[in-house]
Amino acid sequence: MHAATRPIVFRDRLDAARRLAERLQAYAGQNPLVLAIPRGAVPMAQCIAQALRGELDLVLVRKLGAPYQPEYAIGSVDESGWTYLSPHAAATGADAHYIATEKRRQLRLIHQRRAQYTPIRPPLEVAGRIVIVVDDGLATGATMAAALHSLRQRKPARLICAVPVASHEALALVRPLADEVACLQAPQDFEAVGQYYEDFTQVEDDEVIQILSKWASNAYL
């Protein structure tokens, strides 16, 4: 994106999802598997899966928070335990013991979320499919990197990262891990994902469970 171009400010996540769905129209009718990184991306992935006539599921990854700054990502971990660490992790004071403890804590949360969100079925099959991984934006890209790495091991036919907005740093991290990156904008002055949304209300667990439950019962199809 050119520095002089005015950044897009989305009304909300669904507005961003509709615009992403337009970008991804080439996959409509090919039964893509649209995977959300919970929680914010779940209503977005639902919208995109509907628009592309695909399937909806989750990919569960968690960021690893820095010591005394849990919102600052120093890496991420996926459902299998694979871990990505930022080159800057050590500078935050995160030693091997801290990282191991934080990894265990986040893996417990991943397993709790899997039991909570999809208690009666395993994750949908990835092998041989077009897989689109959705998030509401990338700041460091660490969580998306873990998701893409995890999914690549399951041998999708094509692996796509789809986000409305990302930092240049995040795009540089995730591009080698995906076959395609669909990003609507990458502003030069990126500070935080929420600055590109008029409404960036947090998505709660109850909404995630409701969306997945209705989708499983074909209420959205």
Automatic annotation (TrEMBL):
Pfam family, one: Pribosyltran
Phosphoribosyltransferase domain residues: 14-199
InterPro entries hit by this protein: PRTase-like, PRTase_dom
Keyword annotations of the record: Glycosyltransferase, Transferase
SUPFAM superfamilies referenced in this protein's UniProt entry, alphabetically: PRTase-like (SSF53271)
GO molecular function: glycosyltransferase activity
CDD domains with a match to the protein in the record: PRTases_typeI
Name of the protein this chain belongs to: Phosphoribosyltransferase family protein
Annotated organism of origin: Diaphorobacter limosus
